[in-house]
Design a protein that fits this description.
By secondary structure, the protein is mostly helical. The chain has 6 helices and 2 strands; from the N terminus they run αααββααα. α1 crosses α2, α1 packs across α3 and α1 packs across α6. The protein is elongated and about 75 Å long.
């Protein structure tokens, strides 16, 4: 299985927001610089994340994007679902299987041994992604020694 850049970058961007800014607004340009992701692509990704209720935005000089909930309340699964739309490994493993896209179920539906393998793998992977939160990723980043960037808006020079 291979996840799209949209979901991988979305996860990295939300980790970045949680790690560097917490619940304060973060500007796209800062996330883009730290994560080496195109700001235009981030804007596109953030539209899906905003639609899913994972982030919100504020306009103005002190504006930007911020997490809509606490990092411990946002799971990797929620982020991936917002970006990908579906996490089913193979189409025939979906509960509402429509492998033929309008042509009915897969021709092997009732006699396919591997269908159960894919369905169970999808369940286990979803459960794992559900068990990992942004807070867990922040704790892991801290344990790895990732340096937190101080927000330049709060720097005062004397």
């Amino acid at each position: 299985m291979k996840f799209s850049t949209k979901s991988r970058y979305g996860l990295r961007a939300l980790f970045d927001m949680a790690y560097h800014s917490g619940n304060l607004p973060t500007q796209i340009k800062d996330i883009s610089r730290r994560q080496d992701i195109s700001p235009r692509y981030l804007e596109q990704i953030f539209q899906d994340l905003k639609k899913a209720g994972l982030i919100k935005s504020r306009r103005g000089p002190q504006g930007g994007y911020m997490l809509a909930r606490k990092p411990e309340e946002i799971t990797v699964r929620q982020i991936l679902l917002a970006a990908e739309g579906d996490l089913t490994l193979v189409l025939c493993a979906k509960d509402d299987c429509d492998a033929g896209r309008g042509k009915g179920k897969c021709e092997f539906d009732s006699r396919c041994v591997t269908q159960q393998v894919w369905a169970e793998a999808t369940r286990k992977l979803s459960a794992y992604f559900d068990s990992v939160t942004l807070k867990d990723l922040c704790d892991q980043g801290k344990a790895m020694g990732l340096e937190k960037e101080l927000d330049h808006r709060f720097m005062y020079y004397i």
